[in-house]
Design brief:
- With about 120 residues, this protein is mostly helical.
- The chain has a single domain, classed as Helix Hairpins (Orthogonal Bundle).
- Helix content is about 65%, strand content about 0%.
- Helix 1 packs antiparallel against helix 2 and helix 2 runs antiparallel to helix 3.
- The radius of gyration is 23 Å and the shape is elongated.
- Belongs to the CPA3 antiporters (TC 2.A.63) subunit F family.
- This is PhaF2 protein.
- GO terms for molecular function: sodium:proton antiporter activity.
- Keywords: Cell membrane, Membrane, Transmembrane, Transmembrane helix, Transport.
Length: about 120
């Protein structure tokens, strides 16, 4: 077998496996019982898309796709951080609260500024 044939076969198998993973991840996003499950599914979807783009770049020889995959990775990371902050700001969902309580746990207050030394030039 020539190296080109091996590369073609390997990229074909990789595309099939990544496509299957993409379908299963979309299923997880649709069926996910909680919002964190869906956010994790979206993060996984971005990772699979990066893999697909990389395999297509190797298969076609058009390596500009790698730059697109890097940009997608950065956007995916920022989206995951934003979703995580959104989930934290919402508090615990009703099904995850401690049974018998109706209150949402509050963040601890910050320690007082007493005892801290002021920086030079600060008011």
């Amino acid at each position: 077998m020539t190296p080109a044939a091996v590369l073609s076969a390997a990229s074909g198998v990789a595309l099939v496996l990544l496509s299957l993973a993409l379908l299963l991840t979309v299923l997880r996003i649709i069926r996910g019982p909680t919002l964190p499950d869906r956010v994790l599914g979206l993060d996984m979807l971005v990772a699979i898309a990066i893999g697909l783009i990389a395999v297509i770049a190797v298969r076609t020889g058009f390596y500009l796709y790698i730059d697109i995959a890097i940009a997608l990775g950065l956007v995916g990371f920022l989206a995951t951080v934003a979703f995580a902050r959104f989930i934290l700001a919402r508090g615990l969902s009703p099904e995850r609260r401690t049974p018998g309580t109706t209150e949402i746990p509050q963040a601890k207050p910050r320690p007082s500024q007493a005892g801290r030394r002021k920086r030079k030039g600060a008011r």
